[in-house]
Amino acid sequence: MANVTVIGAQWGDEGKGKVIDWLADRADVVVRFQGGNNAGHTIVVGNSTYKFALLPSGVVQGKLSIIGNGVVVDPWALLDEIERVRAQGLSITPEVLVLADNACLVLPMHRDLDMAREARAGAGKIGTTGRGIGPAYEDKVGRRAIRFCDLGDETALATKIERLLAHHAPLRQGLDLPEVTPDSLMALFAEIAPKVAPYLKPAWRVLDAAMKDGRRVLFEGAQATMLDVDHGTYPFVTSSNTVAGQAATGSGAGPDAGGYVLGIVKAYTTRVGEGPFPCELTDEIGERLGVRGHEFGTNTGRKRRCGWFDAVLVRQSVTISGVKGVVLTKLDVLDGLQTLKVCTAYRLGDRVVDYLPAGLRDQASVEPIYEVLEGWRENTHGVRSWDALPATAQAYVRRIEALIGARVDVVTTSPEREDIILIRDPYEG
Ligand code: GDP
Ligand code: IMO
Ligand code: MG
Prior knowledge:
The protein has 429 residues and is α/β, with parallel strands linked by helices. Helices cover 31% and strands 20% of the residues.
C-alpha cells in the first residue's frame, strides 16, 4: 500500500497538521520521526481545535500513532499534552500511542540551557522555541543522553546520570544555573518512568509488523527543509534533519518506506525566530498577511514574520527532499491583494543565482528578483473546487507549480479539515 511522507518545504507552519489529519482518514499508522515539542501542528474539525506538539496528528482519528526514535521527547510535556487532548475527548491509550523505547529524553536541564544560552546571545540569538531541543540533540549525538529504555534500570541509570552531569555541571556553572544533583535526577526519572512505561515499545518492530500486514503509513514531518540542520539557513535552524530522508532513520523503517513525498507549501512565506528571510515584508502587506493568516506560533504564540512566495527556496526543498507533489496551503489569505509577487531568483552582488547559497553572509545579502502576478478580489475562503477559484488564483497556482518543479496536488482554503481542493490524489503516487 502506498505510504506518504509529509514534510514542510519552507520554514515551518505550512499547515502540515491539517494535511496529515486529512490524509489520516485513509491511513492506518501515523509516525513522527524528528523534532520534539518545538513543533506545533493545528487541526480544526468543526468546533474543535487540536494543537499537537509531540503527539502524531493521527490521534484525532484514533489511528495507531508512533513517536519514533528520531524524536526527542520531553516526557512531562508529552503527559500534559495527553491530558489536554483527553479533556477534548480524544482517547489516548497504549493501543493508539506507541513511544519508541530508544528515543532520547528532553530534560528540564536542556530547557534551562536552551533559555540561558538564548538570553546570553543577545542579538546573536537563534530565536529558539526554548523547549530544550538543541541541547537534547547535542546529548544524543554526544552519546550521553538518557533514553526511555534506560528508565527501568536503576543501576545503569546511575552511571548514565554521572556521565551526563560530568558534561552539564561545568556548563551550568558557567551560565550561573543552579547545580543539578544525581539524586534529584533519579527522583525525576522514578516519578516519570511508570507513567510512560505503558507506551514504550520497540517502535521499529511495531511499524514493520504494520507494513507487513499491508497497513498504510503516514510519516509526519515537523519543522521544514529550511530549518534542517544540514540544508537549512544554518545556524538559524533546528537541531534535527527535517527532510524526507529522515523519515527512515527517525522511525527505523527502510529508505523506501516513505513512499510518496508530499511537500507542504504555504502560498506565501513565513518564518518565526531569527535568521535570513530574503522575501520578508516589513510593510503593511506583511502585516496584512500576518493578520489574515493568523500568523502566531501555535505553541509559543510568537508573531511570525511574513513575506512573498519564494519559489527559489521551495524549488530547493523539492530537490533536497525528493518532493513529488505539493499541497499549497492558505491560498485564501491572499484574497483581496491587487498584485502578488513571486521570487524567481536572487541577485547576489552582480550575479543572478537560482538557489540559496550555503554561507550565512550570502544568505543575508541575496535580494529577491520578483515576478509580478495579478491578484483577485473574490473570496476563496472555504472554496472546495478548482473551477470555483478565480482565474487569476488558478494562474497563481499554475505559475508556482512551474517555478518549483513539482505539481500541486491539493490547495487548501481554510483551517477546516474539509476545505480542500483536490487536484490529484497523493495516495495515487
Ligand atoms: P504546521 O506546523 O505545519 O502543522 O502548521 P501550524 O498549525 O503551525 O500553522 C498553520 C496554521 O494555518 C494553523 O492555524 C492552521 O489551522 C491554519 N491553516 C491551515 N491551512 C489553512 C488554509 O488553507 N487557510 C487558512 N486560512 N488557514 C489554514
Ligand atoms: P512546526 O512543526 C516554525 C524554529 C524556531 C527557531 C528554530 C530553532 O510547527 O512547523 P528550536 O526550538 O527548534 O531549537 O528552534 O526553529 N522552529 C520552528 N518554526 N515551525 C516549527 O515547527 C518550528 N520548530 C522550530 O522558531 O527559529
Ligand atoms: Mg506549526
